[in-house]
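User: I'm writing a short methods note and want a consistent example. For Phosphoribosylglycinamide formyltransferase, I'll paste the sequence; you return only the structure tokens, no commentary, since I'll be parsing the reply automatically.
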Amino acid sequence: KRIVVLISGSGSNLQAVMDAIDAGQINGRIEAVLSNKAEAFGLERATKAGIPALILKHTDFESRESFDQAMIEKIDQHKPDLIVLAGFMRILSAEFVRHYQGRMFNIHPSLLPKYKGLHTHQRAIEAGDSEHGCTVHFVTEELDGGPLAVQGKVSIDGDDNAESLQQKVHKVEHQIYPLAVEWFCADRLKWTKDGVELDGKQL
Ligand code: GRF
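Assistant:
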């Protein structure tokens, strides 16, 4: 399958997917990496791997809609089967989301539906939770609200702070994101009108 990855920063999740492809775990290819920030380190990761690294600055556009339209045009040149949001820090317009409905994943650092939005690690600690984690989900118009695909858990220990928890969760992100992409590319994971299915069973 043909994959396009969207990033805004370090791209460690992008790296995890690239590594899983190199290891033969994923039956797919990253056709392009697109960043809204020119300085995103993930662009270097892509270039090093021989993957086209594209920059489209949202600040060059007048509106969210015109930026998203330009992204669609750039992305669709690569005819993607799957869009992977990997630390892409822009809210997407309804039109963009609809265009890639059922074929766009995001990863969020919490056990959704808990803690949508920012500062998830701090919020989990403050709530006194004993566990925390990350979620790969299909993207819908509701921010961090789409149907869940894969979750990974970590325990919150007494001496954890937001920073240490973030590091623990990041490690798990690097396991579950390649897994979700692997399953999608093998046609094992899909979102149909009946909900999200893995190997023909509803999640
Ligand atoms: C991750 O924590 C992910 O959950 C969030 O953005 C971060 C991206 O990290 N959506 P990286 O750029 O993949 O290292």
